[in-house]
């Protein structure tokens, strides 16, 4: 019919192709909001944090590894010259052999503390703490990464000190009980690494961390039987020494080298101390984790 208008042609512009979600097409969907994407242990993130911390102290290894080793060796030289003359024998070995393991353990613990006490504190002061808090790492992974890097530095310092002391005349570092060397070395480094991490959470400036080092870590290290046997002390100071956890770390580590210590001269006598320091580290680790989870002084 003439009055009938022709039918309108279909407009293809009005029909847009439906968008296709590539994730949905692959049979995958995002989890609900608030649910983490990474389930279980974030191995890549944990390894990245660990390597970041290790590379940080290796970039200045002259200051963080070799300088502490030389300082510890100087302790050996000074005390050997001052007190080791006349073929002095302690616990059946020469004075140099007696004091060497204690100095190694002391150097390891002090450097583990120094490494872990720097990370979060430097981030808080420099405004880069977000680089540690924003990555998809749990509080446990953050703690493990920092503590593991501190233990690595302690082991490196200990190895450098042992190598230097092995070349010093009069020092005989034989492994009488390798299990004690490994256990007390790791437990001592872990304890100080956890203490350093808690210090970095509490401290608001570098002076605070230095105060803990000078007034807590150094005195407990030097007054823990590193240079003497506690049997020579009065009963009061013997009791104070046995209340010092550093005493068990250093004496147990020494037992691994010379087979004798203030704790006891048999494996059974030292096993109790080994269990005790392990429990202590579990308690410190739990406290550190709770502090990190609460965000105390880092998220508020």
TrEMBL record:
Primary location class: membrane
Pfam families to which the protein is assigned, alphabetical: ABC2_membrane
Region (Disordered) residue spans: 1-28
UniProt entry keywords in alphabetical sequence: Cell membrane, Membrane, Transmembrane, Transmembrane helix, Transport
Membrane-related topology note: Multi-pass membrane protein
Sequence ranges assigned to domain ABC transmembrane type-2 in this UniProt record: 59-292
Subcellular location, record wording: Cell inner membrane; Membrane
Membrane-crossing residue ranges in chain numbering: 65-83, 142-168, 180-202, 209-230, 269-292
Highest taxon listed in the record's lineage: Bacteria
Record carries keyword Mitochondrion: no
UniProt similarity note: Belongs to the ABC-2 integral membrane protein family.
Entry protein name: Transport permease protein
Organism: Croceibacterium selenioxidans
Upper lineage: Bacteria, Pseudomonadati, Pseudomonadota, Alphaproteobacteria, Sphingomonadales
